[in-house]
Amino acid sequence: MSNDPEFKNRSNAVIDFFNEQMQKSGLPPHFTAASGAYAAARFAVWAAARNTVSVDELKTRRQHVIDTFAEGHRQMLEEHFDEYVNNYDQYFQQKPGVILP
Prior knowledge:
mainly alpha
């Protein structure tokens, strides 16, 4: 989203919120990740629906919207996965014998 100067700030604010939720719940990170993915999907559909003028238009755009958001999510996952692979030792300084959830 290079044309949106606030993109990273909003993303970081959401990540901060997820970190707070994870700490409050005491559950493993994947629970918060699942909640975040669910919320992102719901919000994406709302945003798509808001940009239509009728339910028929929304129905017509269904597959395009799903494909567009799914491809964008896949690209973001790949980008961040590669980042974590390349920086694993820096991000996770593990003690020997520790098994992560």
